[in-house]
Amino acid sequence: MTSFCASLFVFSSLLHASIACQQLGMYKPIPESAYDLLPASSDDISKNPYGYYVTSLPSIEDTATPDPCVQIMAPAQYMVEIMMQAVTGSFQICGKDDSSDPVEFCGAGEVRYCGAIPKNNPTYTFFCENSCETSDNSFFFYRFYIQNSTELVQDPQDWCQNRNPSEFPKSLQRLPDSINNVPDAPKDRDVGLGAGIISSPSFFVIFISLFTLLLTFL
Question: Cβ-count burial of 110 within 10 angstroms (0-12 exposed, 13-18 middle, 19+ buried)?
Answer without folding.
Answer: middle
